[in-house]
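Note to self: keep these together.
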Amino acid sequence: MAARLNEALASARKKLVFASAGGRTHDLRRMTSADRMLAAAGNLSAVLAGFHCGGDVTHVYNPLTYARRPHEVYLRRFGTARKRILFLGMNPGPWGMAQTGVPFGEIAAVRDWMGISEPVDPPEQEHPKRKIEGFACKKSEVSGRRLWGLFAQKFGTADAFFKEHFVLNYCPLVFMEASGRNRTPDKLSAAEQTLLERACDECLAVAISALEPEWLIGVGGYAEAALQRVASASGTRAKIGKILHPSPASPVANRDWAGTATRQLKEQGVWPGS
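Structure:
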């Protein structure tokens, strides 16, 4: 798998400089930020198409492929200009981005607050306990509800929030065990994590270059480490920070997560206030 991934990465690097669209070749460095991120996401999907996990992981979902339409709308609607702050999550949750194609994509937040509701085609090999229903899914992702709920409370409208902010996930893949249990990237084997990082680091570097943020904020420690690694390699001058991940699996996050995250952002100087 490592050899195939290296070959795919080499091909993707060429495409990240010059991309073909409609029979014409475009220099990505002259494209809009949204187009650059879309091209990078497409290349990442191609690179990770052959990514397989050992152990108990039986299914791997990539919402960048089957939920491509809402993901593209998200990038084109809100990712078209330079951003002051980029928030980065780890990977999709089963009831969020896995259903909607939008990072931390709790359905009500994406549909009602962002105004995005596009068709989602289930992957060919579905986990029987983790069906993809798209915007018809009745379950709600707590992490996404907390994250977007905070932003909606503070900024009011999605347009007001996205004027200076953007949210992405580091890894686009969802890993599931036979039981349906979600396995996060940090729980993969060391060899699998290394292969995953090679591909995802390059996509993140494109996003940072496209958005030119002043702040890179990891939503949790894993995302912060990815930002530090990519920022060091790319030479960006952006400052790096972190907020508590809103996962309900964290007892600390279950005690006023919004208040904690707001305080952390203010203390780091990301948001104004004391």
